[in-house]
């Protein structure tokens, strides 16, 4: 089997790793809250992007907020993503054939897990649903399902599907054509039809492959931070999430206040594509437009850049109580 058998589209889908998993240590009723100012500590519910490890955001906890990560099915510690064949020395034959814990997992399962966490924390105070990259697909679905439980959604260079149905379709637009995600096809080490997942070797020792990964995901970062990011990424991702329908609805999702954090140097979700999704959403609900912020960062922010993102999150209206 050769890497040429994998499509550029598959690589784009698999490579959209979450900005929330940027190498940092990751550790109620929306309508009522917006109308009456519900008291209590704000809870940030964090949805990771593709290949990310679920967790909260320590820097927000240090500022007095509650944060919790959504345990996405297939990505939990008990799901054995980091199998022995992925360690050094790697077992290429096993990596190419071992069934994945992601097999059969799709956006319905991700959404159910996120809704469960939102329901659990909604009684304690305002809920801010935060997601990066492919995590936006889950945010869209949760906003459609339980808008009354979410006080704000934050898209951190994440997919917000409005006119088109899924992330794959957006990456195929002129605005998405400059994405470098498809360049990572050489890192796919198994046929998704065999293992039930898109499996990428983020622990490769190939220097050329590492340089390509860094250019796509974290250009400009020092090697220590970049290698720390790779160590946190899980090799397997659902082969279907990127092509499942996650269009937002004006009557549900459109009722929730929303923030978009643009990354100017993103080479995975190009800035033009971020702006297209923002514009589509604002046209859908012109009386509830995105609150837009911009950081000078690649797809996965380094520590200093993520500090700016934390500042943005800490200043949200839901945190000023």
TrEMBL record:
The keyword Membrane does not apply. Residues 58-300 form the AB hydrolase-1 domain. Keywords: Signal. This is Pimeloyl-ACP methyl ester carboxylesterase. Pfam families: Abhydrolase_6 (PF12697). The keyword DNA damage does not apply. Residues 1-27 form the signal peptide. Transmembrane segments: none annotated. It comes from the Bacteria.
